[in-house]
Specification:
globular, single chain
Amino acid sequence: MTAERPETPDTSSVPPETRDWTEVIERGCPECGFDPHLDVPTTGERVRATVDRWVAVLERPRVTERPRPGTWSPLEYACHVRDLCRVFRERLRLMLDEQDPVFPDWDQNAAAVQDRYNEQDPYEASGEIAQELRATADAFDAVSGEQWTRTGRRGDGKEFTVAGFAVYFRHDVEHHLRADVRG
């Protein structure tokens, strides 16, 4: 796959996210239509259902083009979701293996700049996001019974159960696909 690579602005020109998206765990998201009340054990299945759509996004022409200033390109969003899978899988592992762990911080904007998301190869990113989405879906598929009630916390003190964490993760993947890259 060959994507046009116009000159792109520095990723650091995207302002940091300041909204607390954890509200979607209870309320859903009117921006993308996300329903948080779906059966949590279907998380893996729902995440797996996004794989082909993410791959299709990365096959588009002008995948590095930002739709407006201050907004990531489709390639940048895909790289973010790929890395998000890795971070959430590790946090899920911590929640299942430790008693109420505090998650290491992850600065998504710093990761985008450091890893030069918009300069990555869309074809490679496509294979990587597919692999990471499937691996994270498998990790949620392995959760059962009382494990859904185990807890963990972000550095800011926000507490999650594994069930709430699954909803939060699923929203992130689906929101970026629906609202940000229209996949």
